[in-house]
Amino acid sequence: MGIIRDMQRVHATQAFADQRANTAAAQQRDLIRRNADHAIAAAQQAAGDVDRKREHQRLYVEAKTADTAAANAEIRARLSDLDGLLLSTLDVDDHIDLQLFKKPVEVPPFDPGPLGRPAPEPRWDSYVPPQPRGVGKILGGDRLWQQQAASAQRAFDEARVRWVEAEQRRKRQLVVRQRAYEESLRKYEARITAYNAEVDRFAAAVAGADPASVVEYFAMVLGNSVYPDDFPQHFRLAYLPKQRHLLIEYHLPPVEVVPQIKEYRYDRFRDDVTAIPRDESDVRRRYVEVIARVTLRTIHEVIEADRGGLVRQVSFNGIVDTIDRRTGRFVRPTLVSVQTTRETFAAIKLRRVDPVACVKHLEGALSAAPDELAAVTSKIDFDEDADRDFTEEFNVLAEIDERPNLVTLSEAAWEQQLADLFGVMGLEMGAATRTDLGTRWLATDPRPVFGGQVVIFAVRGPATGSAAVHALAGAVTAAGATKGILVSLGGIDPEAYDAVAGRPLELIDGPALVTLLSNYCRVKARIERTA
Length: 531
Known about the structure:
Helix content: 40-55%
Strand order of the largest sheet: 9-8-5-2-1-10
């Protein structure tokens, strides 16, 4: 039932995006970002007028202050997302009614088109010449009329023969079209019937505790659970029907999902933005809470979705795929492990619990230092226990989500994606030109006060350095533009930021581009390098 899982995933993703976009935090963040963009644009516009240096300086400070506020708003929004990982799922009914996926047979009536309308039959009245009268009749008009009538009769007879042939041809074509419609309708009804029968078969198999079908159903449930884009959503499931025991091995996000920066501060006198790092203890505390919330959320979604009493016991192992910074080796430690019964978990009021305390109440093992990859002893050995019955691995983002990979897009698709983005943001995009540095556009900002020409460079190679910034600055000057934008999918070196040095240039790295595509185009893109 992969197609059902895909459809359900798309619906859940859109519902989550709509819900998140309507939150007060998201709206406030977007407002701050728009104000920052306007302030930056105003400062760059003033920079082009040498007689307004003081105004430019004031606007420049306002722009940097607004940009710093926008960056801090992004941090707060991220923390809000992490804090709401558990509560956000409690307002969602995780049960999937499979019968809703059945499709009705809805077909348009047969439309014969022009073939359903016969051509008008030739009429003799339209061909017969008028009778001669008066002097014309006396002067031999009867003989002339007889000649004209004979000619008209021949024309009428020929027209009627053509009309009969055309009608016969039309009726033959109409029969062919009717038969094609009936054959298409038969095939369509057969497909819908087969699809609905498959839905019924799958629903019956789930209700009958068929291990493969039960695993597929709960994969759909967990696939519907929409997390922030950088959460892996990769898991393995196994079902032991005799014990009614569901085993879950879930990939947790790395510690980097917690913002490592506490806040940004702008010093107007030094014209410097300082990143204040988050205390390690705060990062660890928040990361432990993230792990606990993901654990409780997953178990809750399984139990709430199980209205048929398929699961009596749930075992959950939370692992993380990462690199040990101490050794440089790939590791996969278990950071949390919980085993609980349906009755025990159902009695918990998740809206009021402390996630970490709740995991410990369930006698779960939770790493005290997950940021240091300190593993715990698993309650189950997934491979050994799952081997007794059916197990399957699911990678939601790789197998279900069809997000475009910006790295592997064709050049034409990559250029169109960026042209669409900046177009939605308000720029009038010119034609794309491919250069040694990447793709180049000369765009126009149509706003009467803050507008002007904008030069855009976009590259997909390795991280760009100061050379690309200097090249963009030169292109801006040569074009007489008011602003330059550099998009670098592979990242931006620190020296590139230093090279900006107050110039009317903006640098956009890969993660920032993904965010812009999501906010402005509702495109959930990803960046995955291939080997």
